Amino acid sequence: MRPVSADRPSCVRQLGVRQSGGGTTRVAAMSVNLRIELDVRGLVSREQAEEVRSAVHEVIRDERIDNEVTLSLREHDGEHMVLGRTGHYPVIISGVRHWEPEFKRGLEVAVREVAPEAYVRLLCVDVDLERAIEAGTI
């Protein structure tokens, strides 16, 4: 695994450990099953979209979710975008309250390095809560 940039935070999700400033802090956290959707829009060319996909892949690889989140390129009406989605199974995240904003910040920093004008949208949905709401048990 390549070293994490000082500008890009990283959470080791399976262990509930947060790394910051060279130190490691144990975080008491519950695991949550998440469906992840991410979109990067405002890309001007296929080449730029490929560079952004590579940068986003580094972030998801650093977070050890690259086997669960699939990235693709899409072009619609001349706008290029990078899409990321979890597959049939959710990603299990410990300490999601801390992990999600740090993950989004890491994505934004990585994308900004390649495409400063791009917009990153991240949606993380607790699939168990979503099912409970749909079933009317909450």
Summarize this structure briefly:
The chain is α+β, with helices and mostly antiparallel strands. Helix content is 33%, strand content 38%.
Polypeptide structure, described:
This protein has helices spanning 46-62, 96-114, 127-135, and strands spanning 10-12, 17-20, 23-26, 31-43, 69-76, 79-86, 91-94, 119-126. It is an alpha+beta fold and 138 residues long. It has one domain (10-135): Alpha-Beta Plaits. The strands form 2 sheets. Strands 4, 5, 6, 7 and 8 form a 5-stranded antiparallel beta sheet that branches. A 3-stranded antiparallel beta sheet has the order 1-2-3, with helices on one face. Strand 1 (10-12) and strand 2 (17-20) form a beta hairpin. Helix 1 packs antiparallel against helix 2. The radius of gyration is 16 Å and the shape is globular. It starts with 9 loop residues before the first strand and ends with a helix.
What are the key terms here?
single chain; disordered N terminus; globular; 5-stranded antiparallel β-sheet; 3 helices; Alpha-Beta Plaits; 3-stranded antiparallel β-sheet; alpha+beta; 138 residues
> The biggest beta sheet, please?
5 strands, antiparallel
Could you tell me the CATH topology label.
Alpha-Beta Plaits
CATH architecture: 2-Layer Sandwich
Mean pLDDT metric: 85
Order of helices and strands: EEEEHEEEHEH
**Name given to the CATH homologous superfamily:** ACT domain
Protein structure class: alpha+beta
CATH class: Alpha Beta
Query: Strand percentage, roughly?
Result: 35-45%
Number of helices: 3
Percent helix range: 25-40%
Query: What does the radius of gyration come to?
Result: 16 Å
Low-confidence stretches: 1-20
Measured distance between first and last alpha carbons: 41 Å
Question: What general outline do the C-alpha atoms trace?
Answer: globular
Number of E strands: 8
